[in-house]
Amino acid sequence: MSKRKLNAHDVPEASEPSSPSATPTKNDDTQEQTEKPTFSSFGLEPRLLQGIRNQKWSAPTTVQEKVVPLALEGKDILARSGTGTGKTAAYLLPILDKILRRTEKRVTSSLILVPTKELALQVSRLAVRLAAYCGQDVRVQNLAGKESDAVQRAKLAELPDIVVATPARAAANIGALSLKSLATLVVDEADLIFGYGFKDDLEIVSQNMPKGVQIFLMSATLSTDVEAVQALFCRDPVILKLDDLEKDAQLVKQYVIPCAEQDKFLLAYSLFKLQLIRGKTIVFVGDTDRSYRLKLFLEQFAIKSCVLNSELPLASRLHIVEEFNKNIYNILITSDDTELVGSITKDSESESRPRKKKAKLEGGKTDSGVSRGIDFRDVSCVVNFDLPTTYRAYFHRIGRTARAGKSGTAISFMIPKDQYRKHKSTTFAGSENDEEILKKIDKHQQPGQKIEDWTFDMKRLEPFRYRFADALRAVTRIAVREARIKEIRMELTKSQKLSRYFEENPEELEHLRHDQTLNHPARIQPHLKHVPDYLLPGGKKPQDIGFVALDKPKRRFVKGKGKKVVRGRNGKIDPLKTFNARGKGKK
Fold first, then answer.
1. Is there a shared CATH topology between the 45-242 domain and the 249-345+360-475+522-535 domain?
2. Ranges for the Helicase ATP-binding domain (predicted)?
3. What is the DSSP string of 379-397?
4. What does CATH list as the number for 45-242?
5. Residue 386 pLDDT
6. DSSP secondary structure code for residue 221 in this structure
């Protein structure tokens, strides 16, 4: 009896029974290709499958399809995969499965090294969510948190199953962090580890690690830094060069707008106020001062935005990211300069040994900080207000959009060489080499990809120029400084560490709150909030309704001896407006 199956129109149709000698038809090949593995097909522990269902993941991503089966076999893995492709779960699922199936006593069996505190918190939170149905069988400890050294050492003494840390924190806690029973080591964002100055810390971890440990090296690129990490930990890993990064890059439409220095602000105003770009947008600028300058400028026109500031504590930065992900803000302004990188490695200040200077990349700066490791959701557009100093940082920036199969847009403002330093108040030193950086970006584009010129007609923005100039004058250097100070004061009032101090000194808290309520750093002009129709390109123009006279009382002339009499509305003569029309001395 022939089998019956549903065709593309959900209609049952007959198919011939398969025989061992029969050659597969084209339809059979297509059916085999469309059959993708599921999480249950990996043979994972049932409690993990329940945690996966809670995450509402329908099917494994490409990196999970490749990594999980190899990891369950015990292979060392070196995988290249972009941020947002599911690589965190790709190594967490095999680790959790191994912990749940072990028969030995409780030990610290897995160490996950990440370059930033933000990424450490994301990894530990995901591990806890995936192990939600495992009870006390899986315990996760994040060493990159804000606990003191004494508290962290006490928690490490309880031998947590998984430890997530930056290399500096892991190296500083060797001893309390027992590695003698380590079974799995993960180095996430391996291409950034050396760039953040963690080389010495990795060597300490390597020296205290037993032999036979399974190694995961996860990275967005396969650079020389990754090869150095590979030589330090594993000799013959399975190398997976996944195409996720390239596929996502092909979904990004890239545009460049050559413009004058002051016109960057005019373009930013027009893009957001006229809704030329829609959806959630990340705006990358050169440094933190510039991010506040742009924020205060946009506030003049009632355009809401938030700043991801490297000066703020970790909890505040994560809170800003959460607000952006929850659509409270649709515009996030940030920088990926060395300021953020410096704030990340502050967790090693307690170490007595001196730190070596961070390794430098092309252009003399460390690689992108904000654009890597942090999970920004549903970003539709990336605006490079200031071009980065390296082509690598550019591709990491635009990797914030066009994720999970969605399309995205990247718009970059570029200062031509002849326009540099033509407008001193808006000049940014990093824009001097924009043309050279753009050439390198073009050179390293994937096949079929290119950065296109956005033929933006600046003449159509001329009606807005007086508004733009008025708003930009209000954003002075003093206003930028006051805005940064005001945000730090706001965070001081929310600080848990200072709560006890403020309880004992309530007058100090009142002073801070009083300073918060002072005038806004930049002068707000309410009339700039609305855009008149006649300023819009192709909009309505003011109609000519002719001459409009002033509202004056009607004059009535009375025949007489040359006298001019003016009567009011009540009919009585107004003596102040009545005069002799014939000449002087005549009454």
1. yes
2. 68-240
3. EEEEEESS--SSHHHHHHH
4. 3.40.50.300
5. 92
6. S
> Treating both helix axes as pointing N-terminal to C-terminal, what angle do 314-325 and 117-130 enclose, rounded to 10 degrees?
60
Structural contact between residues 237 and 76, judged by C-beta atoms closer than 8 angstroms: yes
Matching residue, tokens 């904000």: 370
Q: Comparing C-alpha atoms, which of 405, 413, 523, 511 is closest to residue 474?
A: 523
pLDDT in tens, 220-276: 766 666 777 777 787 778 888 775 444 544 578 899 999 888 889 989 888 888 888
Distance CA 577, CA 433 (A): 74
The CATH architecture one would assign to domain 249-345+360-475+522-535 is: 3-Layer(aba) Sandwich (3.40)
Indicate if the pLDDT at residue 487 is higher than 60.
yes
The label of the residue with tokens 């964002």 reads: 189
Amino acid at 390: T
> d(Cα 130, Cα 292) in Å, to the nearest integer?
38
Place of tokens 């390794």: 359
d(CA 347, CA 145): 9
Q: How far apart (Å, rounded) are the C-alpha atoms in residues 536 and 438?
A: 32
User: Position of tokens 């007489």?
Assistant: 560
The single residue listed with the structure tokens 């947002």 is 84
